[in-house]
Design brief:
By secondary structure, the chain is of the alpha/beta class. The chain has 21 helices and 9 strands. A 5-stranded parallel β-sheet has the order 5-9-8-6-7. A 4-stranded antiparallel β-sheet has the order 2-3-1-4. Strand 8, helix 21 and strand 9 form a beta-alpha-beta unit. Helix 3 packs across helix 15, helix 11 packs antiparallel against helix 14 and helix 12 packs across helix 14.
Amino acid sequence: MDANKDLNSINYLRSDQDVDGKQILLTLLRNKRLIASITGISLLLGLTYALTAKRVWEGQFQIVIANQQSGSSSLNFLQTNPGLSSLLGGRSGLTNKLQTEVEILKSPSMLMPVFSFVKKTKKDNEGYAVPRAQFFTWLDSSLNISLKKGTSVLSLAYRDVDKELIVPVLNKISSAYQAYSGRDRNRNIEKGSIYLDEQISKYKIKSLKSLRAAESYAIENDLTIKSLSSLKSSGIARINQSNEGNFKALSLPLEKNSAANKEIDVETTRVAAANRIRTIKQQLKQLNLLVDDNEAFIFFGRAMPELSGIKHFKTLDNIEEQLLLKRLNFTENDKAIVRLLERKEFIVEAIKKEVIKNLEGTRQVAESILAASKRPKGVLVKYRELLAESSRDQNTLETLESQRRSLSLDKAFSEDPWQLITQPILLDSPVAPSRKSIVIFAFLLGISSGSGIAIYLERKKDLCYDLSELQSLINLPLLEQLSIKDTNSWDEPIKLLAQGQLSELRNKSIALITIGDIDQTATSELVKKLETYLSSCNVFATKDLSTAANCSSQLIITSMGVSSRNDLRKLKNRLSLQNKPVIGWISLGPNSDYLL
């Protein structure tokens, strides 16, 4: 049951939708003359506008937005240095995004001079002034600025009704953009140069002070480093000269390697003396062990380079040579050999004493040097700190001076502005308005407006054009449909009615109640024919229900498209108030279910 009910509801809705669509179509067909008239007027107006409207022309050019961060090394230094970046406002390297650049290029600061040129030209040529407040309207309607997807190519198109104005405007925009491309770079170079000059002056003084402090401390504590020989020869006079611009001379002692890592002479001397003392002590210890072994003692002594100059070694060599010759001819008991052996023993003892004496003397000298090279605790550490500070200041100064020279070179060799891919050109044909589109739009506007007006007017009249709807509103039997276009065909149906459904009305009065704008001639004809076939029957037509109530029977006469729904509802309510029979109703109009 429920399924059948749902199916019936769906079918009913579909039927209503079909009827509504058909009713709209029939409404449009009934008012085709009105729709055609409105459409014709709209087409005429559209065609007139298309032919008389000023043609809009367009010009274009393309430009490559270069990456300003990929410039010189000095600018890269400025961008990566936090201090310099903050000084320059942090713009370089942070806001150099393509989309940001596009928005800047659309701003009034860039395009207001171009807009002023357009205003002045239009005022001179056309005699009217463009208000300043219309800048953004002009920007939105006349300019199209966009980036090609995935590239840094900027496309710009300008539209205007003044064909001769387009190329000059594009040239001005192109010039403004190219000037802008180098503006920030030059400003950064200028600001960077000022900053670097200030820092160079600051570090010249600071480096000079740190160098003077290191030298003063070295003089007070008898300290030098091996690379300070040139400084020692120059003295304070050279420091004073540096204050007048010869700062490079002072940098000779402190080369690019950190001075704190270089050898300090007094420390080198101390270390060398201590090592020497340890070596001598070890040598004396070894010689004491060999004192009873003359041959080993002499061999060890000869091996020490510092003892090679002892003259007794040569005397010993002569004795050894004489013994070798004597032994070729004499025995060991020979007096000459015995005397040579005694002399050899004496020389060996002399060598031992001299070796020991020389080593002891050398040790004493080293101990004196070691004592002289000692400094109070912390002196060398502080000296290294002073040297390191002086070296850092000097290296910073050299870096700043190098960057200053690079900025000077960058300024001398300016980069090319943003490159134009295409020169500003004017398209051969106008881009607007499209006459074909205007005519099509006017046609569609006329059709839609005419249809809307037709539907509105019919709904306002509230006339019923549907026979089934008319039947449901009257809710009485439909006796016959008579066409007013062919009254000659009425005889047969009226005769049949008189013999059938109306046969009981003979010799009675019948009121024909007309509803709506019924044709009077057709109504009179219907009255005559009914009287003819219903003998002795009084038939008359009226719109007054009170008059019709005096008759024995009533018959409603109406038709599609002549009676409103409201009138039919009122008629139905009023008929129910009177106790008079209403036989039915006759449709007196076009012989069709739908009036066209």
